[in-house]
Amino acid sequence: MTALKPSFARSLVREPAWSRYCFAVATAICGIAIKLLIDQAFHRSLNPYLPSFAAIMISAALTGFGGGVVTTFVVTAWAFTSQPHETVPDFDTGFRCSILFFEGLLLSVGFERMLRAMRDSARSEFWHRKLIATAAEGIWVVGPDCRLIYANPRIASLLGYSLQEMQGAEWKSFFFPEDLPMERIRYESRQAQTIEQFDRRLRHKDGSEVWVLACVNSFTDESGDHAGYLAMMTDITERKHAEFELRRSESRFRALFDNVTEGVYQTTRDGRIIAANPALLRMLGVDREEDLNNPNIAHDFYPDSARRTSNSEIMEREGFLRNAEFQLRRRDGSLIDVLENGRAVRDENGLTLYYEGTLVDLTDCKRMERQVRHASQLQALDELSKGIAHDFSDALTIISGHLKLAQSELSPSHPAFKQLERALRGHDEAERLTKRLLSCERQQRTLPVPEDLLLPPSSTPERVQRQ
Question: For residue 77, what is the enclosing H or E element?
Fold first, then answer.
């Protein structure tokens, strides 16, 4: 941008005022002198109104109303007194001088208005150029041939070019090749004289990307044809990079939120679910997160709603809930055991906004725990039965020995001999029962020898039993 250059006429129009009047008087004197020089050179008398009128025009054009009026007075008085061969000016001379005087006044007023309009136009142009050149936004004007007509210093510094390099440059040289199809579509749509605002990526001189918020407005020439467009662009590169980083961060945390095996939740104080990850949906037997918008977890997922109230009271009082075990009801009505850890999220005033935390499904662990407990009980019962069987076997051995000894001392015809036989038969039944108990204990203690899966089947050692 070039600054408005001061001219001689502009300097006269401005202060100090005495310079305007001095110039006006000098102009009138020059006009009179030129008339006298012409008279002497050509030996004839030139009409005084011509140089007077010329002096008034020059003075009014260069100095405005005040200077024009001063010149008008001077040349009118001279014209009135310089008529040849007359001692007293007649009516015709007075009439001509009056016309000259009033024409000088009209010219002074007209040129004053013209100079004022020129000053206003020059001042407006100066400030418009100053505004565009010092604007914080980058501005360029693209013509119908897709070349830059104008570019301000801000857009030049933003893209790393000089104003000379950008002037007349092709519009496509400031875009990445992959963005050109979209920019061409936008350029064609702007011929409909629409105002658009959008994010745009530009290419820096070093090849890096510059993001701007562009406000584009097309304009037409005198005949109404499309003459190009003007674009005002604000640098938003840092904001865009921050958005990209935020989007990547959100993507990472979303992947963690979706793929973690524990159920993650956010709920309001009144029991409405704000957010739930897929693991929690599977845990509750729900297909979509939208299905959790209507249910109230205190009534729909807690078999005992008082448990949810108790958990809420603990988080309100202590701010967190640690390792709380309880049961939840799935959508199909079945119960699951869960372990919850949560906290109350509060605002700066200490008011609870919502609850968030994790739920771990303990149903399988609880089932295995019950199985282990049942196995332990069976093992204890086995140990008890084994001890009883051994003790009972020892007792039966003693009883059998005494019965056989007593029977050997009696004759078969003795009345007690048959009683002893029946007692020995009962002993045999009891001994067989004891052996069955002991054989069951031995079968439980039979353990297989681990096989080496790397060896072929023919070389695998046979299983042996440990009695």
Answer: helix 49-81
